Amino acid sequence: MVSEYLCPKTVLFFKDVDQDEAIRALVEALAKVHSVGDIETFYQAVIEREKLVSTGVGVGVAVPHAKLDHCRQFFVALGIIKGRGVDWKSLDGSLVKLIFLIGGPSNQQKKYLAILSELTALVRESVFREKLLQAYEEKEVIALFKERGF
Predict the structure, then answer these.
(1) What would the pLDDT profile of 93-112 be if each residue is shown by its tens digit?
(2) Measured distance CA(134)–CA(131) in Å, rounded
(3) In angstroms, rounded to a whole number, what is the distance separating the alpha carbons of residues 112 and 81?
(4) Where do the domains of the chain lie?
(5) Which of 69, 74, 85, 98 is 20 to 30 A removed from 11 (C-alpha atoms)?
(6) What pLDDT sits at residue 80?
(7) Do the Cβ atoms of 97 and 50 come closer than 8 Å?
(8) Helical H segments across the chain, by residue range
(9) How far, in Å, CA of 63 to CA of 129, rounded?
(10) What is the mean pLDDT of the chain?
(11) How far apart are CA 149 and CA 80, in angstroms?
């Protein structure tokens, strides 16, 4: 369940932000709550993954992610953009307003893919995306995931 990995401190609201600023802020938020190791190493791993192919999955959603050798647990941060959105070079060309940053152990590929799959399926639901975009409090966001059983 995604809600297992999210907490109020890893839900951020942005007004105007670019891709790099959003990723950095989400990495820093995760580092305050979880053992991500060196923040810069984690940040660079996310950026390097992004260089391979955009993690903008369409419908205004991006799912940047990185696997880390030293990591023992999975973690998720969510950025909700209240402004214009970010050009993430998404598959459908849409501006990104929801950013799910995922990190986790490099030796747990099956679980890693399950989290990615769950998130991708969930955000394909337009009603759920809209509720996330309308949220203004971190606890409200967490409650939305729990209500959906995610």
Answers:
(1) 999 999 999 988 888 888 88
(2) 5
(3) 25
(4) 2-147
(5) 69
(6) 98
(7) no
(8) 19-33, 39-52, 109-123, 126-134, 138-147
(9) 14
(10) 90
(11) 20
C-alpha span between 138 and 143 (Å, rounded)? 9
| Token duo for residue 15 | 């007004």
DSSP 94: P
Which single residue is written with the structure tokens 């989290």? 115
Q: Residue 18 is which amino acid? A: D
Q: Using a cut of 0.85, tell me whether the model's pTM lies above it.
A: yes
Superfamily designation of domain 2-147: Mannitol-specific EII; Chain A (3.40.930.10)
| Amino acid code (one letter) for 136 | Y
Quickly state the pLDDT bin for 116 (edges 50, 70, 90). Answer: confident
Cα distance between residue 133 and residue 129, in whole Å: 6
pLDDT at 83 over 80: yes
DSSP readout, 67-93?
EETT--S-EEEEEEE-SS-EE---TT-
